[in-house]
Amino acid sequence: MTAAADPLRALRDLLAAEPGVWLLGTRAADGMRTRPVRVFADEGDADLVVLTGARSRKAAELELWPEFTLAGPVAGGWLAAEGSARVVRDAAPVAAWVARHAPGVHAGEVCALVLAPARARRWSVSSGSPFDNTVATLLP
Which strand (E) or helix (H) includes residue 12? Predict the structure, then answer.
């Protein structure tokens, strides 16, 4: 199946490639939090990975409320994806992700946020007018 025929893979490839840094929204006890993150995707894996400090607030928030939003610019518009997340603290998979995506970082101080997009939309912006855009659903 090609990436064009598999919307989840096409979305994963887009999120991992452009721009590579996205805004991650998570739920917190006092409301929502948003921060920039670098998103990685491995060939053959439908999930996305964010490496973060093992004691980060985003990891703690996703352990309590395992829902996320990723948003950012793409060519000609904007993309937003939502879904479920899990925090991986097991040494072997974290060390493998660190070796591939962040060589030189001490894996013992890192955990992985594994993001599984379930919904995604892309807004194509044609001009500065608030009503001059189109919305495409990439994942239902």
Answer: helix 7-17
| pLDDT tens profile 87-115 | 999 999 999 999 998 898 988 899 999 99
From the list 54, 57, 59, the residue with the least C-alpha distance to 109 is 54
Handedness of CA 74, 36, 104, 91 (dihedral sign): negative
Residues in the chain, overall count: 140
Query: What is the value of pTM for the model shown?
Result: 0.87
**Residue with token string 């070796």:** 99
How far from 77 is each of 9, 14, 24, 64, 124, CA to CA, in Å? 20, 13, 18, 32, 4
Full set of structural domains in the chain with CATH: 7-139 (2.30.110.10)
CA-to-CA separations, 41 to 44, 61, 123, 137, in angstroms, rounded: 9, 22, 22, 21
Six-digit token string for 96: 């493998």
